Amino acid sequence: MKMKTARSVAGLLGLLVAMSAHTPAQEVRADQIMARSQEAFLAAGQDMVARITMRLVNKAGRERLRELTMLRKDLENGNQKYFMYFHQPADVRAMTFMVWTYPGRDDDRWLFVPAIKLVRRIAADDSRSSFVGSDFTYEDVSGRDIELDTHTLLREETLGGTNCYVIQSVPAGGAASEFGRKRSWVAKDTWLPLKEEYDDRRGELARVFTADEVQTIGGHPTVMRRTMRDVKREHRTEVVFESVRYDVGLADELFAERYLREPPAEWIR
Amino acid sequence: MRGAPGRLGRTVFGALLMAVIGPPATAQENTFHGFVQANYSVRVSETQPTDPPGDFLLGDQRLELELARAAESGRVRAFAKADFVHDAVEGAARIDVREAFLTLTSTRVDLRLGRQVITWGVGDLVFINDVFPKDWTALIAGQPLQYLKLGSDAANLNLYLGPVSAQVVAVPFFQSDVLPDGTRLIGFTPFPGRSTRDVQPDQRIGNTEVALRLSGRVGRFDTAAYAFRGFWGSPPGVELDGEDAVRFYPRLAVYGASAQGAFAQGILSLETGFYDSRDDPDGRNPAIENSQLRALVGYQRALGGNLTVGAQYYAERMVEYDRYRLTTPPSFPVRLQTRHNVTARITRLFNYQSSQVSVFVWASPNDEDYYLNPEVRHSLSDEVWVAAGANVFGGSQRHTFFGQFDRNDNVYGTLRYSF
What we know:
The complex is a heterodimer of chains A (about 270) and B (about 425).
Chain A: H1 9-20, H2 25-42, E1 47-57, E2 63-74, E3 80-88, E4 96-102, E5 105-113, E6 118-121, H3 138-142, E7 149-159, E8 162-171, E9 181-187, E10 193-199, E11 205-217, E12 220-230, E13 235-246, H4 257-261
Helix pairs in contact in A: 1-2
Chain B: H1 3-21, E1 31-43, E2 56-71, E3 76-87, E4 92-105, E5 109-116, H2 136-141, E6 152-161, E7 164-171, E8 196-199, E9 209-218, E10 221-231, E11 237-241, E12 244-248, E13 251-263, E14 266-277, E15 292-303, E16 307-318, H3 321-327, E17 338-350, E18 355-364, E19 369-379, E20 384-395, E21 410-418
Parallel strand pairs in B: 8-12
Antiparallel strand pairs in B: 1-2, 1-21, 2-3, 3-4, 4-5, 5-6, 6-7, 7-9, 9-10, 10-13, 11-12, 13-14, 14-15, 15-16, 16-17, 17-18, 18-19, 19-20, 20-21
């Protein structure tokens, strides 16, 4: 769960200055589009509260549910704080999970295990590992550093009636990634990614993301329903956002051990 | 006329209550949950004729009910969790009130009253500053981990003062750790063949245990300082009184500190504590545990997505070892001054995290004993999980920490349906 440079305006400007001298304008533009897209997708507003339902569906059609409340607050310097409270399933109910993310370095993560009233630090997983057993990785949930990949604008086309930039991202240098190549369809009007195709390292299509429903809430276009499909394993995760609110004034002190132990009643419902 | 002072009293009380607990927050959900669980374990090691008969260590069938309610708009919360247990090995049923407490919350203060589980420190199954009661028989026999921790009947006050938090816990009702007593699980006793009496500290106000914790962040580390004044929860003191062995709980103070944070792409955990054996400060009484220094270093790291590994080094050192050697009766085994311990844990998740395989090992290279716990767990659905594992103990001697449990090796299974 590394942070996006994009969230820091200074970082973005620095990137542009650094790259414009040596790289074709088109690549710079693709970087810009990806940075702006990530900002719109993962860091809209100063803070956000949402109730999230994840439906994990396997090849045989069997379903598992994950239901959580997520609080997110954006800080200066591109840092973010996340707080998650799990409502379902039963064996993780009342667990809380807190993440502080920093640009360019590993997260700090805490987990509270209610059965033994234990708060403990947990190792920042490989950011490519599955988030709570779903088809989404930690990286998908909170973003991948823009500068880890080389972005190229392939073309512009319409997807479901929306004009999109189609951008290809390839891990730069030896940057670690679960994909070999990724194509993103970024809406020109909302900057949201409407579709992403992830190829594995052999160049075969592995995962497909789709934004299935977009609503504007508090002035922020928001993906309310999304799906990640694992093409090879025929497994998919459907995610529904509900009760989304932005800029509600989440206090910084909510993201602390106290509330891991005693989840803030005001926000967790 | 009689009504007026009553109303006034209620108004004043209400105003005071509001002043203490602050403005109302939004109510939290009232919840009712629980599970039904079957949990069995069977001894697989050889026993001796003097050992308790029977192969089954657990025949545990239970219903756990958990109720949470919020009143006064979320500023007062009630929580209770009780297990209705049928123990097939004993052929007896009982109710076990695991937790039952009220929490009063205000802007900078939380007060929790009642039976509650409190867990301190940063060790993985290694406890230094966690002086709260534990049921070691649950761990040894193969119950789920949550049964290792027992509730304390306590008042627990938390103050949140910006960068520093303070927690004060007062426990007026002493609860010792639960250790094998020879009826089902076999442990070391210095006086074999004698009946054992348990003498708890008197329930006097003056015997209230008090534990203090100050915590805050230092850089990227979560740090805490601890102090405790109370009694040894384990091991108890043991002495002869006529024909009986008497188990008693000497006075203890503990002072310690811990830190945990990100380090070298993993999590580094540090903890230390000084155990001041207040009833035997000079280490002259062989019936009472010597004062000790304890220290822990742990490191945990995720390797690839679904694999996590952790390792710990833990040392326990007697402070007055020369006197311990001089006063130990010849018939007693002599312990090491410093017991070195290493632990390792490997956890691997499979199949969208619905299956888990883990191995935990704890060994002492110089005390020459070990504990091994492999386990597999699988979620059949969101509501149902099943687990199977083994607890294996061994050692070159019969009195060491794990060596004494050698004849309790077992395999266990658990099936739980949660709602």
